[in-house]
Structure formats: C-alpha cells, structure tokens
Amino acid sequence: MRVLTVSTVNVNGIRAAAGKGFTEWLNTTAADLVCLQEVRAEPDQFPPHLRAPEGWHTLIAPAATKGRAGVALYSRIAPTATRIGFGTPEFDTAGRYAEMHLPTLTIGSLYLPAGEVGTDRQAEKERFMQGFHTHLTALNREAEQTGRAVLICGDWNIAHQEADIKNWKANQKNSGFLPEERQWLTTVLTETGYTDVVRDLHPDTEGPYSWWSFRGKAFDNDSGWRIDYQMASANLATRATSAVTERAATYAERWSDHAPVTCVYEWDLAAVPAARRPIEGVAAQV
Predict the structure, then answer these.
(1) What pLDDT is recorded for position 280?
(2) What's the number of domains the chain is made of?
(3) Which end of the chain is more exposed for a tag (fewer CB within 10 A), N or C?
C-alpha cells in the first residue's frame, strides 16, 4: 500500500451520525485510516455494524463519564499495538486520545477539550495541552530516530490563524482562539516539529473550515472554524499530496456539525522500516 488516505471527523455522537449518513460515508470512503472524535458511546453502545465493521480493525476509547467525549480509530490493516491516553492519569480515561501503531506509522485520534474562559473547563484544557505537548514531543523524537511516521488527527478545538476562523475579530477573547491557545499550537508546529498538513498544502486559503454551528445560518454562510487537523511528522508531511474538507452539499445532508478532513500521502503503510525498535509504554493489541 504505497498511497495512504486518512480521514478525521468529529461525529457529534456516533449513534446519531449513523442514522444521518455516517454509515454510508464509511461504506464508500477510500480512507485506509479513519479517526473519530466525540463518539459519546461505550463500545457495546455502538451500532453493531460500526463497532467492528467488515474490513476494519477498530479501537474505541470511551469516556469514564457516560455520554461524553470518546474517540475511535478504524484501520484497514491490523495494528501491532494500541494505546489509550498519553500517560496523564487525569485524562487517560477521559475519552480524549487513542493511538494505533502500524508497521511504519503511529496514528492518534485526538479530542482536545473545548474549554470556556473563566471556568474550570479552561483550566482543564490548559492542563491537557501541557501534558499532551510532552507526548507529542516524545512521539516525534521516536519518528526521527526510527524513520516511523507520526500522524495526530482530530478535533484540536483551536483555530490557529485568522484564516482559520471566519469571525476572528469577534472571537479573540473566546476559548478556541485565545492568544495563549494559538501560541501553544505554534509550539506544536515549531518546538515539537509537526506540520499542519492542510495549511501546508493550502497556505493562502481562508479555511477550509471544518466546523459550523448548527445555529442560525453559519453553514449556509460558511461562517465556520478550522479546528480539525492532521498534524504530521516531517517525514510524512513531505509526502502529502492532497488535503480536502468533505463539506456536505447542503445543510440537510450534514450528519455532524463537523466535516471529514481527508489527506492523501505517498507512504507505504505496511512495509516495516529498516530501523525499528520496541515502543515503550504501549499495550499490545488483543
């Protein structure tokens, strides 16, 4: 498999999305890997055809708080190992992060907390960002040492640049576009060495937005936010050939308030790299 297609999408509840069009999307997607966020369901609450779809290997990480958060990963080839959480006890059962390890790639599905200025939710978001930064750094260091690639996909709940949010002037004091959040994302791209694949391929584009409120005419007016990212290690980012946001044709055809973000890479997913060593702290697939 020398061309790798990866999609990421916040489904806004897997059970609701299943009946609105997600099932059909999954059945027809060309993606080799799919990252889901905000599934809001235990594994046994997934529709049976989505818990273990034919032709897919699945990893589901629900939140300890029922009906909240939750992430999942679908892969067309079997992972060599999996991981839930990133070694921070506060968040390891929060349904915010899951990871699959494939022969040449580590892929993570991320649902970063949304936050709310002046509340405990914002403090929680900041603690998450701090802990996750450490994990991102460790993953990228491993990629540099082994030749494996790293790809972190998901709902990062931060619009990085003014081009990533339609009404940026009105949101400068709101969580998701705070200066300190945007600066943190800058450090992900500079200090830890990741590339925002969509922005790298579309440097002069407004958006493309990936989330629109269900309220008002946000979708019809394309008044959205770009908060769903594919962040790749340098060795994979240079192999990216295309990046699209699969925006629904009409409001009525939406099955989530987010749209899938799909990127294509020239990357052999199955071939074992020449330099490979065991991954520490990762539980084996059962």
Answers:
(1) 35
(2) 1
(3) C
